Amino acid sequence: MMLAVITIVHGRHDHLALQQAGLHRSTHRPDLHVVVAMDDLALEEDLDPVPWPRRIVHLARSGRHLPLARARNIGAQTAIAAGATTLVFLDVDCVPAEPLLAAYAAAATHAVTCRDLLCGPVTYLPPPPAGGYDLTDLDSLAEPHAARPAPPAGTVERTRHGYELFWSLSFALSHEAWYDIGGFDEAYVGYGGEDTDFARRAEGLGTALTWVGDARAFHQHHPVSTPPVEHVEDVVRNATLFHERWGEWPMTGWLTAFEERGLVRRRADGSYGDVR
């Protein structure tokens, strides 16, 4: 078995550095780390050496939009071409707990769960103290996301429900499962929708959604907009594409909030338009 970690990056080089520090502490080291730099030519200047192979792939923007779906696909293709059989996707903000890689590796090679879509709980960190986060103290700082599953350590919960809870911050699958699902749909460009579509296609194939309690990740703090007004154009475009594919609207909380702020208008036919 060869395990590759895949991280897509645009800025936040300090967050990537802490993720690498977390990988150093892992009970199961990665065999390869693929870093896809989206419109981020300065990345390599900020990276410290690591004791495992690392491949950096540079990817230009799609116009004004970051190609998140394409970046993940290129990361997976690069890893599989290098011989990876287990793919672990970690958002640049996520620091893996020590057992995360081992837990994902075990589930991805187990006879029952080897073709499943594997997800681990992501907990949220407060702003870092003046000296930065202490990796040995993250468990005591992190708070679970109220709307996400948080299976206890040592448990694996296999289900065929709740695919809308899939989140691309931290997930894993075997290369066979990746080919089953077909990767991310690159028609989604920019922010939002591509991971919901990915999970919906997994559900349509009968792929189980499996929550791995030991695959914990800690999400580093960064400022956010609620709703993400800087991504309103991406969200409306990608939500419209999802609706055309699946007959329902994703990201309804954000769409409603945009409408309340006068950023979009709901048309008579139920669609959204007039991004302002």
From TrEMBL:
Keywords in UniProt for this one? Answer: Glycosyltransferase, Transferase
Give the family, as the similarity comment puts it: Belongs to the glycosyltransferase 2 family.
Tell me the route in metabolism or biology where this protein functions. Answer: Cell wall biogenesis; cell wall polysaccharide biosynthesis
Species of origin:
Aeromicrobium chenweiae
A GO molecular function assigned to this protein is: glycosyltransferase activity
Q: What is the protein's name according to its record?
A: Sugar transferase
Give the residue range of the signal peptide: none
> Could you tell me which residue ranges the Galactosyltransferase C-terminal domain spans?
160-212
